[in-house]
Design a protein that fits this description.
Elements: E1 5-10, H1 17-28, E2 32-37, H2 47-54, H3 65-70, H4 73-78, E3 82-88, H5 90-98, H6 104-111, E4 116-120, H7 124-127, H8 130-141, E5 145-146, E6 150-153, E7 159-163, H9 167-177, E8 188-193, E9 198-201, E10 204-206, H10 213-224, E11 228-233, E12 245-248, H11 252-261, E13 267-270, E14 277-279, E15 300-302, H12 306-311, E16 319-326, H13 330-341, E17 345-350, E18 354-355, E19 358-359, E20 365-366, E21 368-372, E22 375-378, E23 382-383, H14 384-402
Parallel strand pairs: 1-2, 1-3, 3-4, 4-5, 8-11, 8-13, 11-12, 13-16, 16-17
Antiparallel strand pairs: 6-7, 9-10, 14-15, 17-21, 18-19, 20-23, 21-22
Helix pairs in contact: 1-2, 1-9, 5-8, 10-14
């Protein structure tokens, strides 16, 4: 993206502080930023801080004779390679969807002839309101691009969808919007995610608490880095990332078959929580409760070890990464698992950990340890999206170094 120019519109909301990090990260990549700071946005970040980071004058007032003579809003709207709205408030989304323009930000959005990327941020109730959902659908049909919003805890204390995407996620979306060739261009990636379900009878199954969020975040990060990504997913309740080839499975044996059918691949990330056992025989009809309260005996047999099978496969990927969900001796067990399975890396986490009052499984945050031949890296707590971005960057550096 070096040499590109971004027009950043900073909306009003507590997430406006992330725009400062976004500007800094863009500068690291050689991207110039010019900013429009809305009146509400200026309640959360100062013009001086934005100007200091961009190295440019900040634009705020549609009716400023000085600003209009130096760079009118029409020229401002078209001088950049991409217009980014971060945070994108319900107000800004609604104005653009309705074709309204009564300030510099909304006028600029209507006047631009460039792509627009929005990173929404608002309370979960606002995000789920019919009016905002209509705006969102209209804007998508009009070709507006979106990064997020994410699930998580709000500044107001509520939990749900509405958190602004993290700066690295927005940057990945910017790279995709600009058509920049990512560091994993030409790489074929295979990711597994979510739980597997092993049927007991037509209405019952054995499973686990995996939400699939971490695997989906990794797949999305790999796509944004340019990889041709296949996502093999167990049953989850989240939408697949744009750009992936999605294969849905239910059981461990189905997941193994899908993985083998998707080879060859350059990198394999086994983030799924695969059931270790399954009933030896699934009943054809519902098992009824016994009148004498005798509990039916279900014999379990071991499922195939997908990670070990693929590390020994004739078409083994160049880089094989497994996950280890542990409750005790996390790093020690991960080191042993890496040796036993033959994986290049193991990403381990403590699924009994409590992060911000939530279990790791199902939450939007994670704290992991990367175990490799070089040793163990303890990553700080971060969002699962950030784990995905960081892992994608590490994969790119490793594959490039091995090329």
């Amino acid at each position: 993206m070096r040499g590109k120019s971004i027009l950043l519109i900073i909306g009003g909301g507590i997430a406006a502080y992330k725009s400062l990090e976004l500007i800094r990260r863009l500068a690291e990549r050689g991207v110039r930023s010019r900013a429009i700071l809305t009146k509400a946005g200026a309640e959360f970040v100062t013009p001086l801080s934005v100007s200091a980071l961009t190295g440019q004058k900040i634009f705020q007032d549609l009716f400023s004779l000085t600003d209009e003579s130096e760079m009118g809003h029409i020229e401002l709207s078209r001088a950049a390679d991409l217009v980014v709205v971060a945070p994108a408030t319900a107000d800004l989304m609604g104005k653009l969807a309705g074709g309204l323009a009564n300030d510099l930000a909304s006028t600029t959005l209507l006047a631009t002839d460039k792509k627009i990327l929005m990173a929404p941020a608002m309370n979960v109730r606002m995000w789920e309101s019919p009016a905002v959902r209509r705006s969102f659908e209209i804007l998508k049909k009009d070709g507006v691009l979106f990064a997020g919003p994410n699930d998580g805890e709000m500044a107001c204390g509520e939990f749900g969808t509405g958190r602004m995407a993290e700066p690295l996620e927005v940057i990945a979306a910017i790279e995709a919007a600009l058509g920049a060739e990512g560091p994993l261009a030409g790489v074929r990636a295979l990711v597994t995610a979510g739980p597997t379900r092993e049927p007991v009878d037509p209405v019952r199954f054995l499973a686990n608490h995996s939400s699939g969020k971490q695997g989906y975040a990794i797949a999305e990060a790999l796509v944004r880095a340019g990889a041709e990504t296949t996502l093999i997913s167990g049953p989850v309740a989240i939408a697949p990332p744009d750009g992936v080839k999605l294969m849905r499975v239910t059981t461990a044996r189905e997941m193994l078959a899908a993985c083998e059918a998707s080879l060859p691949a350059d990198v394999l990330v086994m983030a799924a929580a695969v059931a270790d056992w399954r009933p030896d025989i699934a009943a054809n009809s519902k098992i009824k409760k016994s009148t004498d309260r005798v509990v039916p005996l279900i014999k379990l047999v071991e499922n195939p070890d997908i990670l070990a099978t693929l590390t020994q496969h004739a078409r083994r990927p160049r880089l094989v990464i497994g996950f280890a969900a542990e409750t005790d001796d996390v790093v020690e067990n991960a080191i042993a698992k890496r040796a036993r399975k033959g994986a290049d890396w193991i990403i381990a986490n403590d699924v009994s950990a409590n992060l911000n009052g939530e279990s790791v499984m199902g939450s939007d945050r994670n704290r992991v340890h990367l175990v490799s031949a070089a040793g163990t890296e303890d990553w700080p707590e971060m969002s699962k999206a950030e784990v995905g971005s960081r892992l994608a960057a590490r994969i790119a550096a490793t594959l490039k170094g091995a090329a």
